[in-house]
Specification:
15 strands, seven-stranded mixed β-sheet, Quinone Oxidoreductase, Chain A, domain 1, globular, alpha/beta, 2 domains, binds NADP nicotinamide-adenine-dinucleotide phosphate
Amino acid sequence: MKAIVCEAFGPVDELQYKDIADPVVKAGHVVVNIEAAGVNFPDGLLVQGLYQMQPPFPFIPGNEVAGTIAELGEGVNHLKVGQRVIALPLLGGYAEKALVPATHVMPLPDSIPANEGAALVTAHATAHHALKQRAKLQPGETLVVTGAAGGTGLAAVQIGKIMGAKVIAVCSTEEKLALAKANGADVLINYTENDLKDALKEATGGKGADVVYECVGGDTFHACSRSMAWEGRLLVVGFAGGEIPKFPVNLSLVKGYSVVGVFWGSFTQHDPKGFAANMQELLGWYVQGKVKVVVDEALPLSRATEAMEKVMNRQVKGKMVVTP
Ligand SMILES: NC(=O)c1ccc[n+]([C@@H]2O[C@H](COP(=O)([O-])OP(=O)(O)OC[C@H]3O[C@@H](n4cnc5c(N)ncnc54)[C@H](OP(=O)(O)O)[C@@H]3O)[C@@H](O)[C@H]2O)c1
């Protein structure tokens, strides 16, 4: 089969598009014929050796796919060959086939196209877990989302609205803000043209934000850390801007707010039942039209490095997908 293979940590354009052996099915697993794979910011970090996880070489990046079941391993009784599924391999998504633990495979409703199914999980499931289990977001609270037109930022805008929050979207361009607005954002802040701390003060009437979904890091994190309401929750989601901020903890003491880490991949391992319940709720919201996947572009697998570079270079609105 064709796959995108990482043989050493390095720039994204050093990834190899090549023929490798098909995965062999084993007990408790399935082999999936991949129709589409979601591209996420962490994929680019992973192949450069900049991510929390550092897999042995060679490896295939990609942790979310949609397709059909090709083979069932021993002991897998709840799925069948040919069934449409969403599958979450830890690695291996940028390929024509992937071996996936059966626990991380779920039926894909016929109404969801493969491109959207592949892009529905990581970004939305991270936002869902963050706002539900980590922030315990309440109706009427103010939610600030940074990088709000990115994959997981746009998902947080949509899910924040479902949960009844007033959503303040923070983006770098008017085009991105328009997309956040079309997905439900109530207040728009362009943080390349305005001082973010002042703009958040004005947008919250001086009270500060109850919850911040912070994906960017650096100065953006610092501005948010000075814009929190009493008993607020500042969610540490990512550092797309490249700088992991250092945080003066006295701010949290003085303002009485919490800094809350979010790691969706670990959540799926630590709490498989919670993960399954969240996925059921998320797929229900999709089928009811309450959440949607905005696929900016789908590129062929052979151009996966281009897709990853677009994500890393701030050029994507919503999600990028690759198709074998
Ligand atoms: N904690 C978790 O479990 C988890 C799960 C998934 C993703 N993440 C993290 O969340 C972050 C966003 O992931 P994503 O897949 O949504 O990425 P994405 O689609 O690329 O969105 C990231 C957004 O960050 C903003 N940004 C600001 N400075 C940037 C820079 N120098 N380069 C690139 N983007 C920049 C961009 O919005 P503007 O142009 O509007 O500023 C961009 O839309 C990443 O750091 C990722 O690692 C964490």
